[in-house]
Amino acid sequence: MIKQEFKAESKRLLEMMINSIYTQREIFLRELISNASDAIDKIYYKALTDDNLVFNQADYYVKVTADKEARTLTITDTGIGMTQEELENNLGVIAKSGSLAFKKDNESKDGHNIIGQFGVGFYAAFMVADRVTVTSRALGSDDAFKWESEGADGYTIVPSEKATVGTEIVLHIKPNTEDDNYDEFLEEYRLRSVIKKYSDFIRYPIKMDVKGQRPKAGSEGEEEAELESYVEEQTVNSMVPIWRKNKSELTAADYEQFYNEKRYGFDKPLKHLHISADGAVVYQAILYIPESTPFDYYTKEYEKGLELYSNGVLIMNKCADLLPDYFSFVKGMVDSEDLSLNISREMLQHDRQLTLIAKNIKNKIKSQLQSLQKDERDKYETFYKAFGRQLKFGVYSDYGMNKDTLQDLLLFYSSKEKKLVSLDEYVSRMPEDQKFIYYAAGDSIERIEKLPAIELVSDKGYEILYFTDDIDEFAIKTIMSYKENQFKSVSSGDLGIESDADKDGQDAEESGSKELFEQMQTILSGKVIKVKASKRLKSHPVCLSSEGEVSIEMEKILKAMPNNQDVQAEKVLEINVNHPVFQSLKEAADKDAEKLNLYTQLLYNQALLIEGLPIQDPVAFTNAICKVMV
Fold first, then answer.
1. Smallest Cα–Cα separation from 136: which of 55, 90, 80?
2. End-to-end CA gap in the chain
3. What is the pTM of this model?
4. How confident is the model at residue 504 (pLDDT cuts 50, 70, 90)?
5. In 3D, which of 467, 338, 367, 346 has the Cα closest to residue 415?
6. Which one of 178, 393, 484, 514 is at 20 to 30 Å from 325 when CA atoms are compared?
7. Rounded CA gap, 409 and 393, in Å?
8. How far apart are CA 502 and CA 458, in angstroms?
């Protein structure tokens, strides 16, 4: 008997690996099954170069057996097995990987690669077991050996007996404590659940003895047939993942079923994308564009990310690094053999391969969305109503770094088309004399259509984009221009529309009323930066416009935020000098200063209401109305 201490440093090292490297206790089963799969792969590799060795895949499997009475969980494989020396080297040295060394010696280009490049996975067994026994017989040997350990104190190796080639690992499950229920790993349903979650696509059968009930022989025709219990060996994993099948073999129903099985959402996906990349980085992926927004999508609790597999073994439930935030609505998975995994399968290095995969996926998603927008507009609009807001956030965030990626995906409601249109569609319809892309912001389409500020642009026959989302104007100001066309709010100071004759007439009127406007500006001191004759109003008496970067709509949004940002737009009160109200103002200015003050305050408050801004003193406003009526 060989009795030795671990060659790795200390009990502290093993405790660190068990308690820190792995975040979930159930991971132990994934690691042991992956190691068993590796052991079978090694026979396959040898068969490639050894004519005397025939590899018949049907003869190889992994079996998981739970014994509640003995409190043991056994994982058996028909793989290559280990000699006494290999038991010492692979299990006696914490963080050494036999699979990695074998892979380096047996590189193959046929895609049948070993999973276990990770080294410490075996020791995850000590998260649930207080004693682990490994009995193994190597290929080509008649001798078997038993390795046993109770943890960091060390291990023993003794000769043993085993009828067949392969390895049997017996975990002596820890007793329950007040905080920990270890019995769950002796329950059939729990074991099947863990296997399905992490190891469903291991390419060899994972077998279990499954209990069931059936009618007793001879009682089938009876009204209440007598049942008998039975135990049957079943394969509990799927083995062949959908993403490794030929696309021509799969139907839309297959992809939808996979979406439902993986519980990516309760809706029906609008579109799927099946990627098989074989270039600078090799990976396969199935991505889905959902139909509806998850209930927690716009909350801090929502976690973005794709499932990440390495050769069919689930590594991470949500790998956030594979998706940019603006495409966080995408669901699905990625499987790659090229990823560099560090220590355990859960710790992923930020390396070139991951970056390349993420970049490729980003481009594929954009391309798919553009195709959807062009060829299946109804579906795209369904998607956009659910996730368009996220695309706009993507444009605005990171100082506009992603605006070129996203601007062609944006849609806004059109005053002319009476439906959602893209920026490209808007620009393609612009008349030659139109200088800007015009937009109007408000709480709703109905409210925008009643804004006095849109009159001049509408009368000119120009199309207006309606911004009804609070992020819209911020996103557009980040884009600044599209195909060399600047964006212009209908509420901005200069619309670039007025003819020279109109300007001359308005300027003359404003010059003649300069003293009146100065008086009104004094009355509204601190509320507006200017009072002037309007060049945009046709039928309405008054409106507010703004100068500077902050628009009136942006002021409303910023003030509504929880941190109470006291941001003010530089407001300008515009007066329609062709409206009868203007004559009343002129008469009041000549005869009654108090009445001018009353009229000015009324018009200002009316302009606030039109813009959806709050009136500072509603009581004073109603009293002012009463004074006019009396």
1. 80
2. 112
3. 0.80
4. low
5. 467
6. 484
7. 12
8. 17
